[in-house]
Amino acid sequence: MKARDLLLRMAENNAWANKTLFAACAALSEEDYRATRTSFFPSIRATLEHNYLVDTYYLDALVRGGHGRAMYGAPDPTFAKLADLVVAQGRVDRDLVAFVAALEDDAALDVIVSVERRDADKPERIGDVLAHLFQHQIHHRGQAHAMLAGTNVKPPQLDEFFLAEDQKSRAAETA
User: Which of 85, 103, 116, 165 lies at a CB distance of 3.0 to 4.6 Å from 68, suitable for a disulfide?
Assistant: First the structure.
């Protein structure tokens, strides 16, 4: 498998896992969604909003949007409702899949983009930014998943996506 194809599968998995986790979170009461919990971020809401912010930040760098530095110091987005975050995250997920799908080949992964940090622009390879972004999502989605276990909503299965056998049972979800 070529690296670009693997990263496309990762982008598709990212979108599917977010959609699956958000569907479970939709069954939470507003109180449970916002409740203080033990994790890196203090609630399911804060964790999911953080993932959205970071996805937006790195996608901006990948598409050379020029808005990265403006995100520093800006207030964290506070979506009035989970449904609003679901729509925004879905849009970013679709844009990320489209970005990776549009990469012509593995050589495109070595193209340098500028990631706007607080102090300076930092050159990074597209492939490295994508790998970092997917790892970041997996890390914090796992935290939200663990926090969900402390509620009355059963955490969804998030690790059955890539294998052929998994695809059979997930066909309707991944269509």
Answer: 116
